Amino acid sequence: MAALDSLSLFTGLGLSEQKARETLKNTVLSAQLREAATQAQQTLGSSIDKATGTLLYGLASRLRDPRRLSFLVSYITSRKIHTETQLSAALEYVRSHPLDPINTEDFEQECGVGVVVTPEQIEEAVEAAINRHRAKLLVERYHFSMGLLMGEARAALKWADGKMIKHEVDMQVLHLLGPKTETDLEKKPKVAKAQPEETDQRTAKDVVENGEAVVQTLSLMEQLRGEALKFHKPGENYKTPGYVTTPHTMDLLKQHLDITGGQVRTRFPPEPNGILHIGHAKAINFNFGYAKANNGICFLRFDDTNPEKEEANLPLGAPAWLLILSHCPPGYTPYKVTYASDYFDQLYAWAVELIRRDQAYVCHQRGEELKGHNPLPSPWRDRPIEESLLLFEAMRKGKFAEGEATLRMKLVMEDGKMDPVAYRVKYTPHHRTGDTWCIYPTYDYTHCLCDSIEHITHSLCTKEFQARRSSYFWLCNALDVYCPVQWEYGRLNLHYAVVSKRKILQLVAAGAVRDWDDPRLFTLTALRRRGFPPEAINNFCARVGVTVAQTTMEPHLLEACVRDVLNDTAPRAMAVLEPLQVVITNFPATKALDIQVPNFPADETKGFHQVPFGSTVFIERMDFKEEPEPGYKRLAWGQPVGLRHTGYVIELQHVVKGPSGCVESLKVTCRRADAGEKPKAFIHWVSQPLTCEIRLYERLFQHKNPEDPAEVPGGFLSDLNPASLQVVEAALVDCSVALAKPFDKFQFERLGYFSVDPDSNQGQLVFNRTVTLKEDPGKV
């Protein structure tokens, strides 16, 4: 009942039911939001408007000091704080003024309380912004970036309502330019860059959400540079909310600055055998991008602390990081490729020091005793330091079996987990250190210390690692070593997909997919095999941006990025999936003609390829109908069609049918296209073609959230789409692709974008459909 009451309370604030349920999963956030909403209802009654509810949710999700909750709620319910800008200022004020009492006069001044921005002031600010850009606005009209006008007006009137500014911009622009014309509605053409290698200088596209101007870039550079992300400056770690200082902190930060020179340092830390998926692509862009945007460096560090996971059949070493690099934008080169195992000696020495400081102990509780929410405290927590030192050395020398002893740290984490394990016994040989070690550090122990060794300034992690932040700070401070700052951001997920390694293994075992690189999955190897260019994946990550909240996107948004890239990079060819033979009875030559087909019809400077055009051609079966429905424009009785690129039009003369009555072939005559009336349609065709296999892919799952029991009660394996793969074994393709290699990409005219599959051999090419030419409205 409590959960239902909270759900009703949260939806009453304007949250969607899905958002409310997600909030309930976060015990800290839901408790804080429940308290804020309850207090607000005492002032406003049971009905709270959506604008106030949005502010209360923003307060509960961003406030780090619960002592200030009641104080800030009172300002929201009294309408003294009524905009997102004011709330942000208020949160920043209480963060930077942690001591009691709060100077309310100073607080209200810093938060714009009581400041009234009149419509006349907004009108004047917008008019001034338009006048500054008037000439360019008149030239570009509605292709001009209106977000620039809103941003300048907002800068002049800090406390103005964003919706009012947007409305005023819309009105004044409409008055200046008049209604949109057909030209205004056309897609803005791409402008060639003078220096195409500088990928970080792309133009920002402005979007407006909830009346607030939000800049959505085509590159992460604009977000990652400057003030878009409120990260600390190198050496100013102590200014970060929640950062724990000690008497040694300032000296350690000074030593850190002496070593790094104030340089930004990040790291991307996958497992060596990790199956990289679309979420990792965002992490790659964020970690490498933030370093590059701030003239810093990024380490590529493999977390190889568990020898049991480093299986030989999965990518290790160079192949793994080369795969990662293949999905990095140009210029995202690791400063250094490192492994956690590089630091095993130092990590062991620090573990000994931790015991000496009475901050760790050897424990004999079994793994099953440590599971669950409230495991029993260890009876060995207070054992003498010297005893733990001797036992840890015994662990090191292999005197304990696996599971008989662990080294545990003396702390309680945010999620209530007590005394996390630092070292455990494992007798599996390590892929890099062999049999040198039989004890291995855990992620909880290794993560922060490797960051410290490499002097990482910004340890960027996804949100699920927030529960480990306390152990991160605690461990560095317990050893008196440099303590970086861990920042969390929201994971990137996709609907109609699973990315968990365990669940993909289940899919493979069930025969639902072939392997990790099955093109229906969203691992990077699968996307590569399907034909998704790295540039498209990176562009998608840039459009998604960096948020604290978890982001779940529709696959069609990723596919749109793929189309944008392939439209400019995939040469055209012609293929027929369901061939219908067409014999031209009056073919104008005794042998096949050579037809020059542009690789990119929109830009013939990119070259041509040659295909034969003979008296027998093959067209798509769906491009002919004996009894067409109204509006059908392709080949039919009395309705000729053009053959693309040939300059010829064909007209039906005879339909050849087999014994069953099925159409087997057509006989047609041809004429020059300029020798008569222009046909209603031009269709693709092939002549003297190659036979190939074409694999057509659809979504692997039928529901948006296949892992959600509420949506799919039978589990994700029960949600498989039986039509997710269609294999066309005898498709025909023009001979221009005869020398294509695996992963080469083409646009098959009128069909979609296709990539050569590694299953291809000298006898037969195999193509994977990457995406269709246009988005399927039924999938949105």
From TrEMBL:
Domain tRNA synthetases class I (E and Q) anti-codon binding, first and last residues per copy: 682-757
Repeat keyword on record: no
Domain spans labelled Glutamyl/glutaminyl-tRNA synthetase class Ib anti-codon binding: 570-670
InterPro entries named among the record's database cross-references: aa-tRNA-synth_I_CS, Gln-tRNA-synth, Gln-tRNA-synth_Ib_RNA-bd_2, Gln-tRNA-synth_Ib_RNA-bd_N, Gln-tRNA-synth_Ib_RNA-bd_N_1, Gln-tRNA-synth_Ib_RNA-bd_N_2, Gln/Glu-tRNA_Ligase, Glu/Gln-tRNA-synth
EC annotation from Swiss-Prot or TrEMBL: 6.1.1.18
Keywords: Acetylation, Aminoacyl-tRNA synthetase, ATP-binding, Cytoplasm, Ligase, Nucleotide-binding, Phosphoprotein, Protein biosynthesis
Gene Ontology molecular functions: ATP binding; glutamine-tRNA ligase activity
Protein's job: Glutamine--tRNA ligase. Plays a critical role in brain development.
Name under which the protein is recorded: Glutamine--tRNA ligase
